[in-house]
From TrEMBL, chains A, B:
GO terms for molecular function: NAD binding; NADP binding; oxidoreductase activity, acting on the CH-OH group of donors, NAD or NADP as acceptor. It comes from Rhodopseudomonas rhenobacensis. GO terms for biological process: organic acid catabolic process. Residues 173-292 form the 3-hydroxyisobutyrate dehydrogenase-like NAD-binding domain. Keywords: Carbohydrate metabolism, NAD, NADP, Oxidoreductase. This is L-threonate dehydrogenase. The active site is at residue 179. Residues 10-168 form the 6-phosphogluconate dehydrogenase NADP-binding domain. It comes from the Bacteria.
C-alpha cells in the first residue's frame, strides 16, 4: 500500500453569494481543489472564470468531496441543498464532513446534524461573521461546534476561510446558539442606533458631532460605530440588508418563545425591522431603520429628499 | 488701578457625592480655592479633613464665588440648590457662572438657564460622564454648551475637572440633549446585554465563552463589555445603580413623548429597569437587570443562590 500523502481535501462550496464566493476563492487560493455550485449559473461561471470548477447541482458538486461547505441563506435552503432533489446526500462519499454556515435555530441544526450523522457523514455547525470583504480575504470569524472527527476533517478548509476559529463545543447547535446571542445584540444595537440618531436629528443636533461624542462614550456599540456613518452619508446601498435582521431576530424570537424566555428588547427591535421592510426597504442597508423613525416623527436625516420614498 | 493679576477663581461645589467629591478634590489639587457643600455633614467634614473649605448651605458656599459647580442628582435638586431657601441665588456675586452637571431634560435646562441669566449670572450646561474614579482624577468627559462668556468664566474649573471637554453649542440645553442621546443608548445596551447573557444562560452556554466571543464580534457594546463581568462574577454591588437608569430612561421617554417621537427600544429597556427596581434591586448594580430575566425565565446565573432574593 502506498504511503498516505494526505493530499489537500476536495471541497464543494454550495452557495456562491457575497459570502460563499469569497470563501470559495479563499479555499482555492490556499491550493484546495474547489468546486462551486449556485442556483445562479452566472455566479458559477464567474467562479470558473477565476480558475475554479463549477457544478450544476449540489449532488454533482459533492461527488468525491471530503468537505462540503454550505453557505446558503437559511435553514430551508440548507435542508434543500443537503436532502432535496439533486442534493448533497445523493453523492457525498461516506465519512465526508458537511460544514454548515447559514444562521439557523440551534434546534434545527441539531435535527439536520442527526440526519447527516445517521447517513454516515460528519456535521460541523459553523456559522460565520465578518462580511463579504473578510470572506474574500479568508479572514472570517467562525463560531464552530461538532465532534472532534468533524473538526479534524474540516480543519484544512476552516484554516483557509477563517482568521479566528472559535471551537465552542462538541455538539452541533452550540455554534448556532452563540451566533444567535450575537444576532440578538447586533439587531437590538442597530435599532437602538437608529432610534438615537433619528431622535438626535429631531432635536436639531449636529449629527456628525453626535457620532463623535457617542463613539467616545459609554453609549457606543460596534453597530453604532459601523452603521451610523451610512445615515450621516445618506447612503443606504445595502452592505447588509434589512431582511437579514428580519430573519435573524425572527429566529431569536421563535427560539425565545419556544424556551418561554421573554426578549422584550429583541421583540421591539424586530418590529422596527419589520416596519422598515414593510415600507419597501427590505433590500436596503439595515441602517434604513433610522429612516423609518425619521419619517414617522418628521425628523430630517442627511440625504432625505422632499418625498420620502424607498430607494428600491 | 492695580494690574489685574487674574487670580484663580473661587469655586463652590454643591453636592459631594461620589462624583462631586472627586470633582471638588480635583479642583483643589489644581490650586483652586474650593468650598464644598452637601446635605450630608459627614461628606462636608471629609472634604474639610482633606484640606478643603466647608459650607452648611449653598448660599454660604456661593458667597464671593466666581464659579458654582452643581453636582446633584436631578432637576428638582438642581432647582432647589439654586433657587430654594438658602440657595445659591441668595448670595452669588453678579457675573459668576453656574456649571450644572445633573442629567436633565433639555427643556428644563433651558428654563433654569433663563432664570439664572435673568438674575445677572452666567449658565453653563455641563453634564458629565466617566464615573467616580475619573471624577477623582480630574479626567471626566464634559458635554458642555452655553455662551462664550460662560465658557470663559468656567474654563479654569472645567480644565481641572475634565480630560475631555466637548463644546457643543452656544445654547444651554444642547449639552443636555447630547447627554440624553448617550443615556438612551447606554440604557438600551445594558438591558440588551442583560437579555442576551441571561438567554445564553437559559441555553446552557458557557457564559465566559459568550463574553469572549461577543466582545470580539459585531454584537459588542461598551456596556456589554463593562457590565457583563458583574454578572459573570455574580457581584451586584452598585458601581452604577439601577435607579440611575430608571431616572434617565424616564427622562428620555418624557422628552420623546413631548416631541411626539416614538422610542420603542428605550421604552422596552425602561420597563426592564422598572421591573428590576420594583423587585427591590433599585440600589444594586444596573447589571441586576440580568437577574430579572433569569428569575422570570428560570435561568441560572453565576452566584445565584437557591432563594432568589434581592441583595438589598
Amino acid at each position: 500500500m502506498p504511503p498516505d500523502t494526505s493530499p489537500l481535501p476536495r471541497v464543494a462550496v454550495i452557495g456562491l453569494g457575497s459570502m460563499g464566493f469569497g470563501m470559495a476563492s479563499s479555499l482555492r487560493r490556499r491550493g484546495l481543489n474547489v468546486t462551486g455550485c449556485d442556483v445562479s449559473a452566472d455566479a458559477v461561471a464567474r467562479f470558473v472564470a477565476e480558475g475554479g470548477q463549477g457544478a450544476a447541482t449540489p449532488a454533482e458538486a459533492a461527488r468525491d468531496c471530503d468537505v462540503v461547505v454550505s453557505v446558503v441563506v437559511n435553514a430551508a435552503q440548507t435542508e434543500s441543498i443537503l436532502f432535496g432533489e439533486e442534493g448533497v446526500a445523493a453523492s457525498l462519499p461516506q465519512g465526508a464532513v458537511v460544514v454548515s454556515s447559514a444562521t439557523m435555530d440551534p434546534d434545527i441544526v441539531r435535527r439536520l446534524a442527526a440526519r447527516i450523522e445517521a447517513g454516515g457523514w460528519l456535521y460541523l455547525d459553523a456559522p460565520i461573521s465578518g462580511g463579504a470583504l473578510r470572506a474574500a480575504q479568508g479572514e472570517l470569524t467562525i463560531l464552530a461546534s461538532g465532534s472532534a472527527a468533524a473538526f479534524a476533517k474540516a480543519r484544512p478548509a476552516l484554516d483557509a476561510m477563517a482568521a479566528k476559529l472559535y471551537e465552542l463545543g462538541d455538539q452541533p447547535g452550540q455554534g448556532a446558539a452563540f451566533k444567535m446571542i450575537n444576532q440578538l445584540l447586533a439587531g437590538v444595537h442597530i435599532a437602538a442606533a437608529s432610534e438615537a440618531i433619528a431622535f438626535a436629528a429631531k432635536q436639531g443636533l449636529d449629527l456628525r458631532r453626535v457620532y463623535e461624542v457617542i463613539t467616545a462614550s459609554a453609549g457606543n456599540s460596534w453597530m453604532f460605530e459601523n452603521r451610523v456613518p451610512h445615515v450621516l452619508d445618506g447612503d443606504y446601498t445595502a452592505k447588509s440588508a434589512v431582511d437579514i435582521f428580519v430573519k435573524d431576530l425572527g429566529i431569536v424570537q421563535d427560539m425565545a418563545r419556544s424556551a418561554k424566555f421573554p426578549v422584550p428588547l429583541a421583540a421591539a427591535a424586530l418590529q422596527m425591522f419589520l416596519m422598515t421592510a414593510g415600507s419597501g426597504m427590505g433590500r436596503d442597508d439595515d441602517a434604513s431603520v433610522a429612516r423609518i423613525y425619521a419619517r414617522v416623527a418628521g425628523a430630517r436625516l442627511p440625504g432625505d429628499d422632499a418625498t420620502p420614498e424607498s430607494s428600491v
